[in-house]
Write a structure and sequence with these properties.
This protein is α/β, with parallel strands linked by helices. It has two domains: about 5-150 and about 190-210, 3-Layer(aba) Sandwich (Rossmann fold); about 155-185 and about 215-304, UDP-galactose 4-epimerase, domain 1 (Alpha-Beta Complex), CATH 3.90.25.10. It contains twelve helices and 13 strands. The strands form three sheets. The protein has a seven-stranded parallel sheet, sandwiched between helices. Strand 1 (about 5-10), helix 1 (about 15-25) and strand 2 form a beta-alpha-beta unit. The longest helix is centred in the middle third of the chain and has 15 residues, at about 120-135. The chain is globular.
């Protein structure tokens, strides 16, 4: 399988923007899918305008006309029905590879994770939908649609800026879960973008697989030490029990509290997201190396 023409949707988002930057620096021909009424602007990038309702026939026609080989979806993973429409359009439009909006902090292939965090169930629904199309024949002898789901752990550098890793860097506070010695996987945004490029460069090896990657495999105490070194300040430490935290915030999440959902993701992405020994851990397959913790933390602190 050869991939030449790549389309991205969601190119101004937290992850979409670095993925687009990496794509523009690659050897692929890049297009961005943009809804008709969107105000997003993509300088020096080919834009394919699609209807706001993501009508399958119209999007499929656009993908076919531009001979798109791969579609990368970086819209919010919670938009399940939007993703299914895009997948239907990719199937109908002759696209060879779809990378859905999996990414993120937690493992949607893990039953306990899906029970604790229903948000992940939506990602599983999308993946199951892709699985259902694997062996489905397409018109005109077009080869079967393939997919790759990429699971990254917490967005590491981004997460340090917004509390996702349980640190308030500006306030010099650390919220340490279960003693702080749990190893967890996290990935910097540029690293994730690089992983996407590597998947497209190895289409046969990555077809129809759920792949796990990380740029950091660390504990909260490792991160705390790096933060204190980078800032020269002692952080105020608050010890927390993850089970008790979840008992308090999950009921709020289940009632639709968005902040509570983010907090459940933050907790679970530390205590249950260690990819190192996981089947499907793909750093070696994709030629990716773990990154230096101190260097990344120093960069984030300097930017803050």
């Amino acid at each position: 399988m050869a991939i030449t023409n790549v389309a991205l949707i969601g190119g101004t988002g937290t992850l979409g923007a670095p993925v687009l930057k990496a794509l523009k620096g690659s050897e692929f021909n890049i297009s961005v899918l943009n809804r008709q009424t969107s105000k997003s602007v993509y300088p020096r990038t080919q834009v394919i305008t699609i209807p706001d309702d993501l009508g399958v026939d119209e999007v499929a026609k656009a993908l076919r006309e531009h001979e798109i080989d791969a579609l990368i979806i970086t819209i919010a993973g919670s938009h399940v029905e939007h993703q299914k429409k895009l997948i239907d359009a990719a199937f109908k439009g002759g696209v060879k590879r779809v990378i859905p909006a999996e990414f993120g902090s937690c493992d949607s292939a893990d039953e306990k994770t899906n029970d604790i965090l229903p948000l992940m169930k939506g990602k599983k629904v999308v993946r199951d939908y892709l699985l259902s199309l694997e062996d489905k024949e397409r018109e005109g002898g077009v080869e079967n649609l393939t997919w790759t789901s990429l699971v990254t752990g917490h967005f590491f550098d981004y997460g340090l800026t917004c509390g996702l890793l349980k640190f308030d860097v500006k306030g010099r506070k650390a919220y340490i879960l279960d003693g702080g010695n749990i190893k967890f996987s996290g990935s910097n945004l540029d690293f994730i973008a690089k992983a996407v490029i590597k998947i497209l460069e190895k289409p046969d090896e990555t077809a129809n697989k759920m792949l796990y990657v990380h740029s950091h495999h660390v504990t909260q105490l490792d991160v705390l030490a790096a933060l204190q070194k980078a800032t020269g300040d002692e952080f105020e430490r608050h010890d927390q029990d993850s089970k008790k935290e979840l008992e308090v915030i999950r009921p709020k999440m289940l009632k639709g509290d968005g902040a509570a959902t983010e907090e459940v993701v933050a907790v679970w992405g530390v205590v249950a997201s260690d990819w190192k020994e996981k089947d499907g851990f793909a750093n070696t397959l994709l030629g990716l190396q773990e990154e230096d913790l101190d260097e990344v933390v120093q960069r984030v602190v300097a930017e803050l």
